[in-house]
Write a structure and sequence with these properties.
- Helices cover 32% and strands 32% of the residues.
- With 233 residues, the protein is an alpha/beta fold.
- The strands form four sheets. An eight-stranded mixed sheet has the order 5-6-4-1-7-12-9-13, with helices on both faces. A two-stranded antiparallel sheet has the order 2-3.
- The longest helix has 16 residues, at 217-232.
- The radius of gyration is 19 Å and the shape is globular.
């Protein structure tokens, strides 16, 4: 099974770390985030080949990984101009036409999601074009709880809302079925998924476990602390 890691963004909110390298090479506790991702894809999903859908500073990715990482073949679908997530996937798919399932992940996510279970859930969906990981919305701010008299009674630091879901940035796609729904240029989240929804063709995979994304220097710092704490437990 092939995985595509979406790595075409400029990583503006992570500057100056992305001034000379793509976001996929941002170090998390001394290791590029994409190394964590590839190891997770192989261990948890049985992935046996990885394509980076890339553009900005993509040569740095190739310098780092070459054509193989820990025995896993690596290649690069290079965008001459930003194509968006949907266009990037479509371009990468054009190199490897297949009837098989495909794993897609945004290049800024670290998770312990049991990917094989998500893949199996998709297979049991009965010919669904796509499955999307959804995770509980977690507030980026602390919540203040007040009573009817406006007295503050409690604080909840960055709570999760278990009944409110967000896109977790990991997808299982049926390569053949999804191709016709992908734009040449544009995002899969805006151009493709709304169309699938109208046809009842997009399945969710809810997950409450560990899920982190690196979109800012603050996110990076918090993720590094989480990993350090977990390793010491």
């Amino acid at each position: 099974m092939r995985a595509i890691i979406l790595s075409g963004g400029l990583g503006m909110r992570l500057r100056p770390l992305t001034d000379d390298k793509p976001k996929a090479l941002i170090p998390v506790n001394g290791r590029p985030i994409s190394e964590y991702q590839i190891e997770w894809l192989v261990k948890q999903g049985g992935v046996d080949a990885v394509t980076f859908a890339c553009g900005y500073k993509w040569e740095r990715l190739k310098d780092h990984f070459g054509s193989k990482y820990e025995g896993v073949p690596i290649d690069y679908s290079v965008e001459e101009e930003p194509l968006g997530t949907g266009g990037g996937i479509k371009k990468a798919l054009s190199k490897y036409p297949s009837d098989d399932l495909l794993v897609i992940t945004n290049g800024d996510i670290i998770t312990d999601l049991p990917l094989k279970r998500m893949i199996e859930s998709h297979r049991l969906g009965g010919g669904i074009s796509a499955s999307m990981l959804v995770v509980p919305y977690r507030s980026r701010f602390g919540v203040v709880k007040i009573d009817k008299l406006r007295m503050i009674r409690d604080f909840d630091e960055k709570p999760a809302f278990p009944d409110v879901w967000i896109n977790g940035g990991i997808y299982i796609l049926d390569s053949k079925r999804i191709l016709k729904a992908l734009p040449d240029k544009g995002d899969i989240e805006r151009e493709t998924f709304p169309k699938l929804v109208t046809h009842g063709d997009l399945l969710s995979y809810p997950y409450y476990g560990e899920w982190n994304f690196v979109d800012s220097l603050k996110d990076l710092s918090e993720l590094e602390q989480t990993i350090q704490t977990r390793s010491q437990a």
